[in-house]
């Protein structure tokens, strides 16, 4: 897959709120994406990122997914932050989603250093947030570096995604963020199993939908499934919602 060509196609098809007829997607574009992050939260984020950048830790990664195209099995936490974290506008998107929709139960697949976890937690500190990380050393580093900035509503679990889905008692999550693994076949398998953990208004956020040809093929299949009436392409991220109350539509939006 040629990522440059994909980006040109995305930019050609992407639109802002003008021309959006779905009330749900119009509100997402016009209200949710316009929310500001207060300075006090930006200051806290800067402290977390500074702590990670100052860390001299090197981790031995147990990678249960498709692996990294840029890093070896031995990785510094600074490099993990650089290449494998939901920061910048993508972290702020997670914050805005949780601030606007106020999900009571959140599930995250792929904690990494917890930057995405922290953004979602700040969006709704009262939410029960369960975050799953497959690598024990990454999980430990996250607890040391980012964990102190989270409250007791956040549950950090070291497990493979499949094991969690097999052993966990199904509860209905309002927002599910799938990051990590980066394999299209695995993504389809997780999404099938996550049906037991979701309801008609659950917001699925899928990271790295253009990581590889298999991921993009899986995203294309999911957005065309009749179960999902709303699909939103943000280039790096894809959003899916069942919402059977509305007509099935697909949107390509600029973030």
Provide the low-confidence segments as ranges: 66-70
Give the strand line-up of the largest sheet.
Answer: 5-4-3-6-7-9-8-10
Number of domains: 1
Structural class: alpha/beta
The CA-CA distance between the termini, in Å, is 22 Å
Rounded Rg? 17 Å
CATH class: Alpha Beta
> What's the count of strands?
10
> What is the fold named in CATH at topology level?
Rossmann fold
CATH superfamily: Vaccinia Virus protein VP39
Helix-strand pattern? HHHEEHHEHEHEHEHEHEEE
CATH architecture: 3-Layer(aba) Sandwich
Q: Please give the share of residues in helix.
A: 40-55%
Largest sheet: 8 strands, mixed
Residue-averaged pLDDT: 91
Shape: globular
Strand content: 15-25%
Number of helices: 10
Can you walk through the features of this model?
It is a single chain. This protein is of the alpha/beta class and 255 residues long. The chain has a single domain (3-252), classed as Vaccinia Virus protein VP39 (Rossmann fold). The chain has ten helices and ten strands. β6 (173-178), α9 (184-193) and β7 form a beta-alpha-beta unit. α5 (88-101) packs parallel to α6 and α9 (184-193) runs parallel beside α10. The longest helix has 16 residues, at 39-54. The chain is globular and about 50 Å long.
